[in-house]
């Protein structure tokens, strides 16, 4: 069993990553156990908690998990800039870290496969363009769920697990470079473990 630790900024990142890991675990026939270190409060909090975790592991000589995934939205900073900040913290263990940095927000990923959206929510959705506006993709996700005749109880994130379960991962990876980067990195780890 492979152990994976998640450092994520919110529920959306946690549920998307857990579901994606579950799919890859089944595909590669490699059992995975996840431990979530949720640091609600945005990127700064995730970075601080991740840094503290690494210091605690170093000071206690505790074993590291097989993989650590750090998840935070790029929030208009851009994928590369956001990744640089986390990479700096992860330097001592960089070969054990994968970055989940939706550009600009994770809700956009959930709107990129209209067929999956239709299957899960009941009606298709338009794939959103790539713009950086605060809460834009949260609003688009909630509106798409409402347009399908459902009530978005968590802004639509309550559909995330089912959406990731049925979405065409390769198609979404082609539409969004940040998702493609995550998927490629995760598949690399699973292939090494196999």
The dominant shape is globular
Which range does the strand content fall in? 5-15%
The overall strand count is: 4
Helix content: 40-55%
| Spatial order of the strands forming the largest sheet | 2-1-3-4
Number of helices: 9
Order of helices and strands: EHEHEHEHHHHHH
Describe the structure.
- This protein is α/β, with parallel strands linked by helices and 194 residues long.
- The chain has one domain.
- It contains nine helices and four strands.
- The chain has a four-stranded parallel sheet, with helices on both faces.
- Strand 1, helix 1 and strand 2 form a beta-alpha-beta unit.
Q: Brief description of this entry?
A:
The protein has helices spanning 11-28, 43-60, 79-90, 106-109, 114-121, 136-147, 160-166, 169-175, 177-193; strands at residues 2-8, 32-38, 67-71, 97-100. It has 194 residues and is α/β, with parallel strands linked by helices. The chain has a four-stranded parallel beta sheet with strand order 2-1-3-4, with helices on both faces.
């Amino acid at each position: 069993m492979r152990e994976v630790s998640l450092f994520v900024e919110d529920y959306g990142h946690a549920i998307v990553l857990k579901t994606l890991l579950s799919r890859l675990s089944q595909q590669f026939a490699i059992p995975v156990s996840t431990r979530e270190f949720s640091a609600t409060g945005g990127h700064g909090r995730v970075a601080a908690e991740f840094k503290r975790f690494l210091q605690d592991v170093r000071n206690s000589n505790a074993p590291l998990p097989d993989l650590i995934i750090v998840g935070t939205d790029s929030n208009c900073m851009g994928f590369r800039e956001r990744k640089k900040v986390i990479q700096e913290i992860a330097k001592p263990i960089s070969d054990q870290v994968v970055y989940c940095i939706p550009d600009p927000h994770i809700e956009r990923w959930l709107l990129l496969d209209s067929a999956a959206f239709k299957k899960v929510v009941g009606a298709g959705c338009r794939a959103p363009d790539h713009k950086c506006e605060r809460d834009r993709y949260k609003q688009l996700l909630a509106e798409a769920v409402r347009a399908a005749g459902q009530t978005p109880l968590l802004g639509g994130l309550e559909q995330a697990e089912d959406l990731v379960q049925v979405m065409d991962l390769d198609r979404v990876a082609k539409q969004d470079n940040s998702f493609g980067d995550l998927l490629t990195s995760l598949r690399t780890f699973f292939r090494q473990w196999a």
